[in-house]
From TrEMBL:
One of the Pfam families matching this protein, by short name: RecG_dom3_C
Gene3D superfamilies: Nucleic acid-binding proteins, P-loop containing nucleotide triphosphate hydrolases
GO MF terms, alphabetically ordered: 3'-5' DNA helicase activity; ATP binding; ATP hydrolysis activity; DNA binding
InterPro entries assigned: ATP-dep_DNA_helicase_RecG, DEAD/DEAH_box_helicase_dom, Helicase_ATP-bd, Helicase_C-like, NA-bd_OB-fold, P-loop_NTPase, RecG/Mfd, RecG_dom3_C
Enzyme class: isomerase
Protein's name according to its UniProt entry: ATP-dependent DNA helicase RecG
Substrates-to-products reaction catalysed: Couples ATP hydrolysis with the unwinding of duplex DNA by translocating in the 3'-5' direction; ATP + H2O = ADP + phosphate + H(+)
Transferase found in the keyword field: no
Annotated family: Belongs to the helicase family. RecG subfamily.
Cross-referenced PROSITE patterns: HELICASE_ATP_BIND_1 (PS51192), HELICASE_CTER (PS51194)
């Protein structure tokens, strides 16, 4: 079947009822270019024309209502901008007011008195009286009056389209015209038969008919389920094929041996037994590095879950096989912390670790670069300074990136060029991404998860406090400092209100200072407007314990490790998103002591804020929090998803439809495992569909 010959590829203006002008608008406003695009422009809801509310039963707690009645009165009232058309609708049980603020001249003319209308709209109350403003009005036809099952599709539209008659209903008419001339064979099945049977999916052509013109709710549900599955399944097949292709093309170093360095460290110097999750991740890395392909793995693990030791063991594996390794962190401080920590762990082992950051200059820098090129340095730790072309390894086999979201894909790619065959890449992040999202967004990365905390960690106690309790909070901090602990006080800094936020920070600093006067107490202040060296000094004083309190903006969010800090006070908590709150909270609870997170807010809170605070108080689990965050904000706001294009879904929703997504993913994996090139006869329809569609969409964006 030649797709080009199908009428579905016809330009939209050729459809009955469209023409050049409307065609232009449909392209511009809704990106509907072809018949096929219109077919995939799904209704966002349906009106059940059989469900009629009695006016007597309508109350303010209702949302949308549908009434059958006559207009018994209409009049234009008010002056100028308050001018509006008010009509009275009457059924056999009472009367209801209808209001139009715009277009009332047209409405006045077109709405007739004393004939039956079907009226639909959102109920609101005005001066104590219930009304519907800008209702949808339909002259009641025999069919509806006869009480037949009748679900009417409602399409979203725009003001410009409405002005040309393409209202929600107008679009429905076009769709009807299209479906009337479309033979079922034009819409070919694209899912293998055993899959449609397994999941009891409606045939494709039926689904496209029923999604637009269902007979009843069951039709809607079945059509939606089929089309959601199709959308997610096709997307997964595409992502997985891209990945397969990359794996087939990419060469990777083979780490054959687990050698002396790894074993010696593991048996002699490992300070604690690994958790089950850490072992599992190491096994996954081990498998990747034996496969002869370049590893591209994302390691997700909540703050404090122990990613560093996994990184170190992975680097030892590389060294055992004759390679060098590097660890890149987003800031100077984090690099130093890693350097210090890893050097200490490797004390007693014959390995050379070096630190390279932007501030290491002159002779010291030259020396490092020379030793690196000569292969004398085994592990190089540093900031993005490592990416500079002058940083040349003798033979790098493993590159690890900590705190992934600060580095882009392009930077990752620069690491690939550091050897003739690209080194294996391990990207570590403490920003948990919901499983569903990771499945879709990180198409080109394999994902490992550390979902288990090291033993003996005391869960952080999180409480919610308000202004009235501020003095108590300060006293609590005093108690903790007396016990030898340290505390953070963090203020929001939002771009839009930066100036006010800085004022609040300064006021907060003064306030804290009043409670904690020198010389008994010392305070570090850290924010983005300070010169870098002042900021570093302040951070450093807190890390060494010279200051007991750190007042800061969210610049401390990433990675800073001060195990002695046991209190995190977050000011104006209501202004932070859930993931950010969780990241901030992760700055404490890193030592053996009980730690606390105190969420300060004003007295009046919106529902969303209340919900966020409730979640924070209830759980320490980053994955639960990230799921909740996605539920509250929608996936579009989660880091890195917006640009990926993966969320341009027409009908499926990765939050609501995660069960379908998981099934689609598993099915796609199973099929490609058996038949990577989709050559088997039972996959022919799928293969043809993908080939037809390839030219149409830019799927290569997703990687
Ligand atoms: P993150 O995943 O946030 O980078 P780290 O690697 O910094 O976490 O580990 C946090 C702390 O937990 C460190 O002090 C580390 O030594 C400790 N740790 C890591 N793994 C274990 C383990 N299996 N048992 C006990 N402590 C561990
Ligand atoms: Mg870390």
């Amino acid at each position: 079947m030649n797709y080009v010959a199908s009428i579905l590829s016809n330009p939209i203006e050729y459809l009955k009822g469209v023409g050049p002008q409307k065609g232009e608008l449909l392209r511009k406003e809704l990106a509907i270019h072809t018949f096929a695009d219109l077919l995939s422009y799904f209704p966002f809801r349906y009106v059940d024309r059989t469900k009629i509310d009695k006016i007597r039963d309508i109350h303010g707690g209702m949302d949308f209502v549908q009434v059958r009645g006559r207009i018994v009165h209409k009049e234009v009232i008010g002056e100028n901008r308050a001018k509006r058309l008010v009509a009275t609708l009457r059924d056999e049980t009472g009367e209801l007011e209808l209001v139009w603020f715009q277009g009332h001249q047209w409405v006045q003319k077109s709405i007739r008195e004393n004939v039956n209308y079907l009226v639909y709209g959102r109920i609101s109350s005005f001066n104590g009286a219930l009304q519907i403003s800008h209702p949808e009005m339909d002259l009641l036809t025999e069919e509806i009056a006869g009480g037949k099952q009748f679900l009417e599709p409602v399409y979203s539209t725009t003001e410009k389209l409405k002005a040309r008659g393409l209202t929600a209903k107008g679009i429905g008419k076009l769709t009807k015209n299209l479906l009337e001339q479309l033979a079922p064979t034009e819409i070919q099945e694209n899912i293998p038969a055993d899959v449609t049977a397994q999941f009891k999916l409606m045939p494709r052509h039926l689904a496209y008919f029923k999604i637009h013109f269902p007979a009843n709710d069951d039709d809607v549900r079945a059509a939606q389920r089929r089309l959601k599955f199709e959308e997610l399944f096709i997307a997964q097949i595409r992502i997985l094929r891209l990945k397969l292709r990359r794996q087939q093309q990419s060469q990777g170093f083979i780490f054959k041996n687990v050698g002396d360095h790894f074993n010696n460290f593991y048996n002699t110097f490992l300070p604690f037994p690994l958790t089950g999750a850490q072992k599992r991740v190491l096994k996954e890395i081990r498998q990747d590095t034996q496969a002869g392909k370049q590893m591209n793995r994302l390691l997700q693990g909540d703050v404090g879950s122990g990613k560093t030791i996994v990184a170190l063991l992975t680097m030892l594996l590389a060294i055992d096989n004759g390679f060098q390794a590097c660890l890149m962190a987003p800031t100077e401080i984090l690099s130093q912390q890693h350097y210090k920590g890893i050097s200490e762990l490797l004390e007693g082992m014959p390995l050379k670790v070096a630190l390279l950051t932007g501030s290491i200059k002159g002779k010291a820098r030259k020396k490092i670069l020379a030793e690196l090129a000569a292969g004398e340095i085994h592990i190089l730790i540093g900031t993005h300074a490592l990416l500079e072309p002058e940083v040349v390894f003798q033979h790098i086999g493993m590159a690890i990136i900590d705190e992934q979201h600060r580095f882009g894909v392009a930077q990752r790619a620069r690491l690939w060029q550091k050897n003739n065959t690209p080194p294996h890449i391990l990207v570590m992040t403490a920003t948990p991404i919901p499983r569903t999202l990771a499945m879709t967004v990180y198409g080109d990365l394999d994902v490992s998860v550390i979902d288990e905390m090291p033993p003996g960690r005391k869960p952080i106690t999180t409480v919610h406090r308000n202004e009235v309790q501020r003095a108590q909070v300060m006293d609590f901090i005093k108690d903790e400092i007396r016990k030898g602990r340290q505390a953070y006080v963090v203020y929001p800094l939002i771009e839009d209100s930066e100036k006010m936020d800085y004022e609040n920070l300064m006021r907060g600093y003064e306030e804290v200072k009043a409670f904690f006067p020198e010389p008994k107490y010392y305070i570090s202040m850290v924010h983005g407007k300070q010169p870098a060296d002042v900021r570093e000094t302040n951070m450093h004083r807190f890390i060494t314990g010279d200051t007991q309190i750190m007042v800061a903006t969210t610049v401390i969010e990433v990675g800073v490790n001060v195990p002695n800090a046991s209190v995190m006070v977050i000011e104006s908590t209501e202004r932070f998103g859930l993931s950010q709150l969780h990241q901030l909270r992760g700055r404490v609870g890193r030592g053996a002591e009980q730690s606390y997170c105190i969420l300060m807010t004003g007295n009046k809170l919106g529902n969303d804020s209340k919900e966020r605070i409730k979640v924070m108080v209830q759980t320490n689990d980053g994955f639960i929090i990230s799921e909740k965050d996605m539920e509250l904000r929608g996936p579009g706001d989660i880091e890195g998803t917006r640009q990926s294009g993966i969320l341009d879904l027409r009908i499926a929703d990765i939050v609501e439809d995660k069960v379908i997504l998981a099934a689609a993913r598993e099915t796609a994996e199973r099929i490609l495992e058996k038949d990577p090139a989709l050559e088997l006869p039972q996959h022919r329809n799928l293969h043809e569909f993908l080939t037809r569609q390839r030219s149409k969409s830019n799927w290569s964006k997703i990687s």
